[in-house]
Recover the amino acids of this structure.
């Protein structure tokens, strides 16, 4: 089972679901789940194989595609790719489980969902900038449709905003990539080739920020983050999970594997600015989350804050920093998926509100204890408490930062504390409300269903597994970071 | 065995979580019985004794190998004492919760989770597992205060959480600096390096770019770490969260907070901070001593001004833990007076242990008063109880006198050793602190006078004395107050070897 | 002159003309019996003729020396004759609105003449013949645009004709200036003359006029004013021909002029490295078209007008490719024009289907299309996404190849090329997604009429074939990109930007 199965299963699943006759629409979720599971298993098998034989050559696939352009179908699965593939697979499974009882236009829903997954797999596997960009853009329209059709809370606005930000950022990427391609001789889009080319410092000084910003917008860099909260809130649960959990990671992945290796000198000139923006993102996201009224908005802004850590890790540009950034990508993927899943599906489907003040009357702690426990643990993970994945990632980033920008640690402490504060505020308002004797008795809510429970346990287990025993994940990430691509960035 | 010990309570919590439809009482009873397992395991460890290196049991797992980070847990004599305290107090808390009808599935599970984390903190020999367990106590503690506490509990819980989290982050960053600077966060290795004076040198080389000298860098790191500890103990002026949290938490949880959580700070200060930052600590010592004295005095004075019994005892806890800080400050100022230093250190550990037991007893007494009076616990709400409920008053009185440091009871040994050591090392601080002892006596005696003596308060004439169950609950605690008071060696023998080893690190 | 060779080399055109005559004859024969000729019969004959012409192109490729200097037998000519015929075939399949075409015979004959003209246009390097061929196509198109007897169609036709007339005058004047300068009638000879005197004001003035004339054909701003009215008022078939085939042909002519004739006086539009030459003018035209087209499209509520402004914007992208003055970028532009033609034709076909249901082409009429006909909606998604440049559709590959090759051709060493233009094009292309999405939003998100009447098989083919082609070309762009690139390389002797 090669890593190619991730791509194949997702796209084949999407096509299969689309072709289902209307009367067997109910089958679509089963097919989707099967496709996602195959993808996750393929990624997991790849990870295990990598751990068992760390020195074996990575799986790769390299064929001519568009010779006149020099674009190739070049896929390769190193440790970093595999870890991210596994994350995608897991979030996909959880997303499908959380959408188990969706009833509106099921086939289209799961087909679009799997298309996004396939695009994400493609980005993580690509070693050709053109192919990477193709996969990167494939997800744009499915994202729009998922949000605009199945969303809630100003869905059309949120969907349009998100899409326009994405496509605008893509335009920057296009310009940056085309410039790099042209300057490198106009013969190949291979990442290694582009990274090995010799660009003048003056060229890198403008080309790098263009390319980097293009990717960073999707990673939610401040001040271009505003699409993220509105989009995530408007999206249906599975899409929010996917958007925050995985699609934002595409931006970070692109910044790490495309923008930085191609223009190392440009990066060196701009990394201070990037670090500053990232810290702003951490702080701004946290402070804004502190005053939100909608539970999903809290999570949306917390994503901005957490993605700030990823960018900080990238800006630090030491082994620890990059490692931390990669780990934070994985960690935030799981945690954001979990938070959105609980807030958007488990709670909202039962209470039909996400307003923190209105949730008070449901006394969720007593009426839906399972969700409360799960959300508490997820909140703890999101705060970066040790024992969960976020902690390992954040200390790695902090070490990286200490090596590069020690002074930035001071605002970072503030950021972490505010993160604790807003997480706690949302947690207590939503799940542990203060109730007087006079309050009406809360309505009875149906307990967690099996698919929901499975999804919650799956994601929590991953976060805990990383938090308690991060070694294998670090081995995988280090394998990716050992690639010659990154040698020009690392000190 | 060590892993089993640490994880046993967590397993209990998991069982509780999985046990759908368990009744509140059944869950509480299960948890209380389950919590005996750690006690048995701790006792077994105690009988097995230590190997020549001082370790009674150890367990380790590579975490991030290339950074030398491992989840290392080791039990030595000192740890063992804290393990004993943890397992005993947890069982006690679960038992009195059950008796008060407070328990439910989640409540008991949270307490068990907290126990696992405490056991971890007291055995961790590397910063990462230490911090992991340290921070993981936060969520259970927060929820316990918030969900089962009084009317202002949400605010108190939130404040507790945020302040402690902030402290934790500071401590984390301090240690990360060490990881980057000297390449390890292992307590043993760091202490080793510190005792050879390598720590400052390596740190200075690693951060040559900052143009700061090694000692200055180390000072920053030490202050960051100290902040985290100071919040937890707490040392004045970081104590603002404490009275609210203690007063608003349900009484069994207050016992947990004061009996165990505050000990994390003391343990960290003596076992972690002291050996790693001896030189820096020496610089900080006068300031820390001053803060300790302030903690002792202000704790006592604030207690004098309180009307609420729980708040009085809360401030009294601040006051008592101040002695431990004082001892620590004194030790680093020692300049080679080994005898005084060893006395001070042993005293501080003992004081921590004894305070845990004594505070449990006193708060239990208050819990009983509270439940009989329907929730009132003002200083003036009672009176003349001695005649009405003599056994309760007798046992509470015993605990209060132990807290006062009456010779023959356990509180005395700790305070005696602390003062014995401190007078030899920091006479001025010791002298001022004695004033604290005096104030303590005043407010505790006032408590006895107002509550136990005088005319019988309104509505108290129908009070029954202690029930059999309550007596049985009091019995082991009182035993642990009396026996070490008469025979201190029973505890000190576990400390001696470790104390000497600790002092070896401090040798200039 | 060897007439048999000429006949063989112009076989497709001959077939088309014969078919046109056959169509007229059939129509006359049927109408002579007092009833109007049925559309189905007439269009079947037209299709058959187009298929035969296409088959002759494949089966009997023109070989050997050109029988007359008026025609060129390069691969580019052959390829684009095929493209024109294919697009024409798809355009014929579009059904007219009710009572739009009262005389199908005349309509289809004109259609075939227009296609003949377009085929001849792509296959010549001769200045005079070029003009004649182009005018044959144009005159037919003016009539095709005004065929329905409605005020709107008449207005469209009149505007088209007036603008077209002026542009023809420009073109002719320009051609005569060039002839006057070079004393040569074919483009290679012009190139030779130009090599001796690259900055001749006469030649430059001539080229400027030619550019203005062709700018009209391509609907480049500011020569685009006819486009929205024609797109809105003319029958779907005529619009498809104007939008897809005529634009492709205009681009081929431009490529021939610029790469074969005036390659030497290209200059450079690179930021900070401007060298005077036609690429500077072209870059201004491109930038203007991109800005105008996209910004005005944002405000449209009629899908046909929206497609018209999108056509202006897309012309801008095509000109970006030509600005580079190199074969690779021109090849990418030619690839893109085909892909663009397919997408626009398909979008017009879906619009025609919606018009039949809802009566007009407003964006709101598309509401609930996915419930009426999921397949049409899916096809619309493909067309709009391809126009917006979303992968894995051919429009994406086209734009990407166009922009990156344009940059690559103009980048010399460390001096970056027309980055400003590429950046503008990329950003405005992102903006374009907004208006395409407005249509898609109606089709997929908004609820609307759900009852549906089916569409005919021809119409379904006109929707389905471009959709499939866009997906296939998106996944395997080499199928078209390689032959086009090769053709341009052969045409221009593999010339790269002379800078």
């Amino acid at each position: 089972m090669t890593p190619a199965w991730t791509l194949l299963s997702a796209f084949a699943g999407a096509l299969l679901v689309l072709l289902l006759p209307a009367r067997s629409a109910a089958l679509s979720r089963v097919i989707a789940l099967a496709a996602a599971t195959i993808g996750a298993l393929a990624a997991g098998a790849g990870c295990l194989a990598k751990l068992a034989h760390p020195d074996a050559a990575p799986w790769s696939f390299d064929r001519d595609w568009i010779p006149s352009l020099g674009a190739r179908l070049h896929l390769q699965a190193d440790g970093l790719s595999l870890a991210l593939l596994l994350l995608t697979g897991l979030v996909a499974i959880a997303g499908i489980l959380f959408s188990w009882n969706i009833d509106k236009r099921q086939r289209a829903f799961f087909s679009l969902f799997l298309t996004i997954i396939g695009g994400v797999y493609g980005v993580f596997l690509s070693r050709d900038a053109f192919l990477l960009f193709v996969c990167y853009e494939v997800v744009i329209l499915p994202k729009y449709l998922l949000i605009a059709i199945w969303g809630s809370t100003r869905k059309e606005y949120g969907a349009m905003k998100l899409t326009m930000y994405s496509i605008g950022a893509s335009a920057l990427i296009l310009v940056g990539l085309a410039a790099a391609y042209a300057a490198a001789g106009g013969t190949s889009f291979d990442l290694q080739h582009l990274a090995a080319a010799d660009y003048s410092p003056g060229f890198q000084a403008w080309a790098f920020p263009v390319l980097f910003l293009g990717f960073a917008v999707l990673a939610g860099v401040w001040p271009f983050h505003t699409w993220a909260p509105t989009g995530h809130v408007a999206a249906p649960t599975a899409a929010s999970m996917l958007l925050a959990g995985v699609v934002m990671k595409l931006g970070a992945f692109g910044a790490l594997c495309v923008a930085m290796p191609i223009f190392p000198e440009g990066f060196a000139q701009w990394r201070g600015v990037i670090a500053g923006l990232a810290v702003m993102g951490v702080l701004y996201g946290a402070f804004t989350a502190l005053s939100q009224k909608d539970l999903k908005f809290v999570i949306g802004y917390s994503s901005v804050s957490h993605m700030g850590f990823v960018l900080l890790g990238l800006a630090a540009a030491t082994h620890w920093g990059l490692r931390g950034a990669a780990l934070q990508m994985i960690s935030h993927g799981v945690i954001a998926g979990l938070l959105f899943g609980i807030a958007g599906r488990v709670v909202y489907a039962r209470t039909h509100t996400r307003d923190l003040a209105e949730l008070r009357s449901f006394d969720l702690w007593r009426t839906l204890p399972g969700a409360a426990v799960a959300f508490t643990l997820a909140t703890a993970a999101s705060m970066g408490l040790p024992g969960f994945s976020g902690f390992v990632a954040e200390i790695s980033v902090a070490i990286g930062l200490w090596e590069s920008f020690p002074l930035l640690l001071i605002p970072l402490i503030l950021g972490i504390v505010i993160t604790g504060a807003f997480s706690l505020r949302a947690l207590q308002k939503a799940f542990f409300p203060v109730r007087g004797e006079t309050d009406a008795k809360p309505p009875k809510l149906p307990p967690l269903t099996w698919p929901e429970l499975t999804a919650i346990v799956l994601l929590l287990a991953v976060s805990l597994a990383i938090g308690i025993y991060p070694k294998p994940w670090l081995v995988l990430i280090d394998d990716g970071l050992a690639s010659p691509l990154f040698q020009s960035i690392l000190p | 065995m060590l892993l089993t010990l640490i994880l046993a309570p967590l397993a209990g919590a998991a069982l509780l979580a999985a046990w759908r439809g368990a009744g509140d009482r059944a869950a509480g009873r299960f948890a209380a019985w389950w919590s005996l397992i750690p006690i048995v395991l701790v006792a077994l460890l105690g009988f097995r004794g230590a190997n020549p290196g001082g370790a009674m049991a150890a367990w380790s797992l590579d975490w991030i190998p290339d950074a030398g980070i491992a989840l290392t847990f080791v039990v030595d004599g000192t740890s063992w004492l804290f393990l004993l305290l943890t397992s005993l107090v947890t069982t006690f808390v679960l038992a009195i919760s059950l008796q008060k009808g407070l328990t439910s599935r989640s409540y008991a599970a949270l307490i068990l989770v907290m126990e696992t984390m405490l056991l971890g903190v007291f055995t961790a020999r590397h910063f990462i597992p230490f911090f992991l367990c340290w921070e993981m106590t936060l969520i259970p503690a927060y929820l316990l205060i918030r969900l089962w506490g009084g009317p202002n509990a949400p605010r108190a819980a939130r404040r507790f959480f945020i302040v402690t989290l902030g402290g934790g982050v500071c401590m984390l960053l301090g240690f990360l600096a060490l990881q980057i600077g000297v390449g390890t966060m292992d307590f043993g290795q760091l202490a080793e390096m510190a005792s050879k004076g390598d720590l400052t040198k390596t740190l200075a080389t690693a951060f040559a770019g900052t143009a700061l000298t090694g000692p200055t860098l180390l000072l920053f790191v030490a202050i960051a770490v100290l902040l985290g500890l100071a919040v937890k103990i707490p040392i004045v002026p970081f104590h603002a969260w404490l009275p609210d949290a203690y007063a608003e938490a349900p009484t069994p949880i207050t016992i947990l907070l004061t009996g165990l959580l505050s000990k994390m700070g003391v343990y960290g200060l003596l076992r972690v901070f002291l050996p790693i930052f001896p030189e820096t600590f020496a610089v900080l010592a006068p300031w820390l001593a001053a803060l300790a004295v302030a903690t002792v005095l202000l704790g006592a004075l604030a207690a004098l001004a309180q009307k609420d019994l729980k708040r009085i005892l809360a401030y009294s806890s601040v006051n008592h833990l101040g002695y431990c800080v004082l001892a620590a400050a004194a030790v680093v100022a020692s300049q080679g007076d080994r005898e005084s230093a060893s006395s001070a250190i042993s005293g501080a550990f003992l004081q921590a242990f004894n305070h845990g037991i004594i505070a449990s007893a006193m708060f239990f007494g208050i819990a009983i008063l509270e439940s009989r009076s329907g929730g009132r616990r003002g200083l003036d709400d009672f009176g003349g109880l001695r005649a009405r409920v003599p056994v309760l008053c007798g046992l509470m009185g015993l605990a209060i006198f132990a807290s006062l440091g009456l010779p023959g009871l356990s509180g005395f040994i700790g305070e005696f050793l602390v003062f014995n050591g401190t007078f030899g090392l920091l006479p001025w601080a010791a002298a001022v602190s004695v004033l604290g002892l005096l104030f303590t006596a005043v407010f505790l005696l006032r408590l006895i006078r107002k509550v136990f003596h005088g005319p019988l308060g309104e509505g108290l004439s129908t009070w029954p004395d202690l029930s059999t169950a309550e007596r049985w609950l009091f019995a082991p605690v009182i035993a642990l107050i009396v026996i070490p008071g008469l025979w201190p060696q029973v505890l000190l023998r576990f400390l001696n070897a470790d104390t000497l080893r600790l002092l070896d690190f401090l040798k200039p | 002159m060897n007439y048999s060779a000429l006949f063989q080399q112009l076989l497709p055109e001959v077939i088309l003309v014969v078919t046109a005559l056959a169509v007229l004859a059939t129509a006359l024969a049927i109408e002579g019996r007092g009833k109007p000729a049925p559309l189905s019969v007439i269009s079947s004959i037209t299709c058959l003729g187009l298929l035969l012409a296409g088959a002759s192109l494949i089966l009997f490729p023109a070989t050997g020396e050109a029988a007359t200097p008026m025609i060129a037998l390069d691969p580019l000519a052959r390829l684009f004759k095929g493209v024109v015929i294919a697009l024409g075939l798809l355009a014929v399949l579009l059904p007219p609105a009710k009572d739009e075409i009262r005389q199908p015979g005349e309509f289809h004959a004109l259609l075939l003449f227009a296609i003949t003209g377009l085929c001849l246009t792509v296959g010549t390097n001769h200045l005079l013949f070029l003009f004649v061929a182009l005018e044959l196509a144009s005159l037919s198109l003016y009539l095709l645009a005004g065929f329905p007897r409605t005020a709107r169609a008449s207005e469209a036709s009149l505007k088209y004709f007036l603008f077209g007339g002026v542009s023809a005058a420009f073109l002719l004047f320009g051609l005569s200036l060039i002839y006057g300068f070079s004393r040569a009638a074919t483009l290679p000879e012009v190139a030779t003359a130009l090599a001796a005197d690259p900055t001749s004001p006469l030649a430059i003035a001539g080229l400027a006029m030619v550019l203005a004339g062709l700018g009209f054909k391509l609907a480049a701003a500011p020569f685009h004013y006819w486009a929205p009215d024609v797109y809105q008022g003319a029958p779907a078939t005529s619009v498809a021909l104007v939008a897809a085939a005529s634009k492709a042909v205009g681009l081929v002519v431009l490529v021939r002029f610029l790469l074969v004739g005036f390659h030497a006086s290209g200059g450079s539009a690179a930021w900070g490295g401007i060298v005077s030459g036609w690429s500077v003018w072209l870059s201004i035209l491109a930038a203007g078209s991109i800005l105008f087209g996209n910004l005005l499209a944002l405000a449209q509520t009629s899908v046909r007008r929206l497609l018209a402004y999108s056509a202006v914007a897309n012309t801008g992208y095509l000109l970006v490719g030509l600005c580079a003055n190199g074969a690779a970028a021109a090849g990418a532009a030619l690839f893109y024009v085909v892909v663009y033609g397919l997408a626009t034709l398909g979008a017009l076909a879906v619009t025609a289907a919606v018009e039949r249901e809802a009566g007009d082409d407003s964006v709101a009429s598309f509401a609930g299309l996915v419930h009426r006909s999921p397949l049409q909606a899916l096809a619309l998604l493909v067309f709009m996404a391809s126009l917006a440049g979303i992968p894995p559709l051919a429009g994406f590959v086209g734009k990407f190849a166009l922009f990156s090759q344009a940059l690559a051709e103009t980048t010399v060493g460390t001096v970056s090329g027309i980055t400003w233009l590429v950046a503008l094009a990329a950003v405005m292309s992102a903006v374009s997604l907004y208006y395409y999405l407005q249509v898609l939003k109606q089709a997929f998100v908004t609820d609307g009429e759900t009852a549906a009447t089916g569409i005919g098989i021809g119409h379904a083919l006109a929707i389905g074939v471009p959709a499939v082609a866009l997906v296939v070309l998106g996944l395997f762009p080499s199928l078209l990109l390689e032959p086009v690139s090769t053709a341009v390389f052969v045409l221009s002797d593999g010339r790269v930007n002379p800078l």
